[in-house]
Amino acid sequence: xxxxxxxxxxHLADSSSQQFLKESLPATGIDWEWLDxxxxxxxxxxxxxxxxxxxxxxxxxxxWFAAPASLKQWEDTVLTRKFVYGDHRYPLADKELGVVVTTxxxxxxxxxxxAEGITLDAALAPLAAVTQRAKMTWLPTLAIHQFGYLNESxxxxxxxxxxxxxxxxxxxxxxxxxxWFAERLPGMIDRLPADQQAKGKLIASVxxxxxxxxxxxxxxxxxxxxxxxx
Amino acid sequence: xxxxxxxxxxHLADSSSQQFLKESLPATGIDWEWLDxxxxxxxxxxxxxxxxxxxxxxxxxxxWFAAPASLKQWEDTVLTRKFVYGDHRYPLADKELGVVVTTxxxxxxxxxxxAEGITLDAALAPLAAVTQRAKMTWLPTLAIHQFGYLNESxxxxxxxxxxxxxxxxxxxxxxxxxxWFAERLPGMIDRLPADQQAKGKLIASVxxxxxxxxxxxxxxxxxxxxxxxx
Lengths: 230, 230
What we know:
The structure is a homodimer.
Chain A lengths: L2 E5 L8 H8 L6 E5 L8 H10 L2 E7 L7 H10 L2 H5 L10 E8 L16 H4 L1 H9 L3 E2 L3 E4 L6 H16 L6 H17 L6 H33 L1
Parallel strand pairs in A: 1-2, 1-3, 3-4, 4-5, 4-6
Helix pairs in contact in A: 8-9
């Protein structure tokens, strides 16, 4: 899977959350691009990147209930009508589009009666409408609230959530997760420091055992279902 | 009333609808500003303008279900947290905010099942949330659909709708409209060409007669209500 990550942030170097996400990127399969870092938008190049991607991630802090201006500039420039739906051709059809949004408020602020007075889904509705117009598939948003308050354990969990959001098959089912971990765990363990290798291998063997148990359970369930269908 | 009109459009001179609206501006009380025409945003100047305005109009074509990037850039730059709600002070509180939006699609496209797949209110929800955050009053949006297809009569009506949207007291009740026309009609008639002055004066006298009739009706209604309350 090829994932294109478009980051909109006017001061990327000053953003601890964006720097964290950058360091958390999966090792392969990612085309990462910082929109504000470009002098001018190369429309052909951007359109080519979009054509080549299987999944497009729009990543930004929520400014005034929307993406920063640089993402809108990119939309207004790159997503020409002709490109997105001209002549009834939809080059982006069936590609997935996901949003990774950071906010300075807790999640509960984004509900009726909450401090922000609008849900994230409502704030992102214009982007969802673009997705719909392009016949792309909208992924449930990955919201990162108050990154600065996360503890180390939460940050480590975020690395995995983020990597899965960028590369795991959708929908986010148990099977999709299991497959993703089965593919990634060996590489993750290989990259562990020498003194943690043993622990890593223990985790891998537990994971394998649990996966085998799950497969067996699934087989049993299928058998029961078959019999009750008779 | 002081009205600040902020126009976001990357190619203003090429836009027949924006040129038309510019020519339709009321003669007085309007501070008109083209956001894309500025080299850099002067934050202090913009904030001063906002403080001085009674009504703020955001005017733009709908690009990808939102305002063009220049308006978002203006928001991200001018509407600092400190300015809008810092220290629990709300300098924009109770000012009115209205959106004048032009679209290339008919109004019916912006409903469930319509071609655009999103209502204008849903597309403008992020701006409405800004308005709410600033404790401003959101005005019902003035949508101009498919300007190029309007005939002369519809265009003349648009001039009045637009002028009223910029300067008429809210809510848009019969009384507000009547007051607005009573104030403006004499000036409008004065500016008519000589050969249309007689027609203009006839309209003015009919308007006065109808207004007097309405006032009398209102008095009668009030009397009836008073008696039935006894």
